[in-house]
Design a protein that fits this description.
Shape: elongated
Helix content: 25-40%
Number of helices: 7
Strand order of the largest sheet: 1-2-3-5-4
Amino acid sequence: MFDLNENKEENQKHKYIFKICQEYSEKELLAMEKEMLGIYISGHPLEKLRQEIVRQTNIDTVKMKEVQEAIENGTNPEFSDGQIVKYAGIVNSVKKKYTKKNTLMAFVTVEDLFGQAEIIVFENTYMSAQNFLMEGQIVLITGRLSIREDEEPKIVAMDIKELGEKKEKKLVLDIREANEETREKLRGAIRFFMGDRNNIKVEIIDNDGTKPSGAIFMIKDTAKQFADILGEDKVLLEGI
């Protein structure tokens, strides 16, 4: 016969332990939808800025599509090649490269409420706007429309600004009490999370003050990686 008491004790060991976690914010949920599915399901990060975008821009991806269709049909489009336009959206990706003259340029994919557009950014514009050219950042772009046969219209950026809330996102790391081994681990972690999809700036607090240390691509659990190295009280998220 089975010992019922022993079975009861064994069942207790295998009981599920449920942890109640804080609900994700709307921004986090939308970001995860985009990351997992490639599209937004429950809303769009630009919806709250719709009126502001309409007020400040004169072109969107619908109008750019209409330009392409007009060219293909041999009719006169609403916009002309080289025309100054204003376009707003959320940065999806940034791909950097160097030209034959060893100057930097970037191909930035920016999504508005209707679709995506490619923005070409040359070195001078990129250097003045690099703090805004991070995944998830909402930007207002002033540039020249580039219309070519057999190609989707593109925008050559002249000026890029942040649109919406001016709350700066930062990951602040306090290394004043860290030894050299810990600092080297931290440098490795920053390099690991650094890439073309950076979405948050990093600042380091050292004995000689606070200084910028580039930017990284951050997801929900990234801060924990730095906390495991430095300690939770040495890692601070601002603007999130």
